[in-house]
Amino acid sequence: MDAKGEISDISFTSVMELTKSQQNIPERYILPTSLRPNPSLVNHISPSLPVIDLSMMNHPAYRPQLIVQVHAACHQLGFFQVINHGIPTSVMKDALDSAEEFFNLPSDEKMRFASADVHKPVRYGTSMNHEMDKVFYWRDFIKHYANPISEWIHLWPSNPPTYKEKMGSYAKAANALQKNLMEVVLESLGLNANYLHDDIKEGSQVMAVNYYPSCPEPDLALGMPPHTDYGTLTILNQSQQGLEIMDHDKKWHPVPFIEGALIVQLGDQFEVMSNGRYKSIPHRAILNVQMKRLSIASIHSMNLDKKVGPALEVVDEQHPVAYKEGSFGEFLDYISAKSLTEGKYIDTLKIHKRRDASEA
Ligand SMILES: O=C(O)CCC(=O)C(=O)O
């Protein structure tokens, strides 16, 4: 049965199940050479990636300094880590522990939530979309909607018994942090901190809870392929290092694990709102031979039906409208028809400047 009590006929072999019986990774997880993680192309001596201290976020004398740091991080990368963000490490850890307990359940129990339908508010799956992926990714996941929590929490797993409480506390805290971060990021773009305030408050929050088992051949596969998130911003809580981000020069950088820190990534919806002044950050999850890794991506966006286009304040003669309006709902329709490698939703929104005769 699925989360709505309907019989689910979807079944697949999770990576967790696979690792119980296989020594090597099966053929369908082996990426073509050009798409493998290739550690020699990764910038292991990365310039230090931005870490921003939020302790003075609400202090009028220090906030301008914070806005400058956020502007630099968003403009250069669309990525930063935050410390002193107000979410206790114990709440972050409890959520990761409850996720691990969920993934440790017998397969039948997890399969109750199995679905390849991206419109489902709760869904357990493997890879990106096991019905469409040509090559599989070394990841199992459960995704569930979380805002407003009272509307969704009854659909979340009841087993393990503490899942709702622990994941729920973290989801609420991540959503509160998101609202503060949105104000800071909007301000850093030169917009009013209250821009689209009510839409942000009532916006969608999807918790993507990821489990990457240790992988015997991590150079041949990935936990998640390079992608950008569709929303405004994503807050990532992780159990250990494994995320890589791509800079504007297309160089990969490993993101260092900092105990208690959270990762903030700009998504496509923010790129559209900023009319391309800030770009969403491409990222991927790499694997490791010794240890499993868990992550919880709290992905925030405007509501399903809310159309989002560039803010008028960032459009002028030098910067004409560069994106059409789009919505989270349209994004879901797009990815239910195409696999990730077949194109990106945001590319369908880009308005390509016509080259005039003098440029030709
Ligand atoms: O696990 C990670 O580091 C990345 C997760 C992610 O990109 C996602 O869930 O969309």
Question: How would you describe what is shown here?
Answer:
This protein is an alpha+beta fold and 360 residues long. The protein has one domain (37-348): Jelly Rolls (Sandwich), CATH 2.60.120. The chain is built from ten helices and twelve strands. The strands form two sheets. Strands 1-2-10-7-12-5-4-3 form an eight-stranded mixed sheet. It has a four-stranded antiparallel sheet with strand order 6-11-8-9, with no helix packed on it. Helix 2 packs across helix 6 and helix 3 crosses helix 6. It starts with 14 loop residues before the first helix and ends in an 11-residue tail after the last helix. 2-oxoglutaric acid is lined by residues 208, 210, 224, 229, 236, 238, 242-243, 283, 285, 295, 297.
Distinctive features:
single chain; 10 helices; alpha+beta; 17% strand; disordered C terminus; Jelly Rolls
SSE topology string: HEHEHHEEHHHEEEEEEHEEHH
Query: Strand count, sense and closure of the main sheet?
Result: 8 strands, mixed
Q: Provide the domain count.
A: 1
Listed once per kind, the bound small molecules are: 2-oxoglutaric acid
Helicity level, as a percent range? 25-40%
Shape, principal axes of CA atoms: globular
Q: Whole-Å distance between the termini? A: 59 Å
| Structural class assignment | alpha+beta
Identify the CATH architecture.
Answer: Sandwich
Number of strands: 12
Short description:
The protein is 27% helix and 17% strand. The protein is α+β, with helices and mostly antiparallel strands and 360 residues long.
Secondary structure: elements and pairs:
Blueprint: H1 15-21, E1 51-53, H2 63-76, E2 79-83, H3 89-103, H4 107-111, E3 122-126, E4 140-145, H5 149-152, H6 163-188, H7 197-201, E5 204-212, E6 224-227, E7 233-238, E8 243-246, E9 252-254, E10 262-266, H8 268-273, E11 283-285, E12 293-301, H9 328-337, H10 345-349
Helix pairs in contact: 2-6, 3-6
2-oxoglutaric acid binds at residues 208, 210, 224, 229, 236, 238, 242-243, 283, 285, 295, 297.
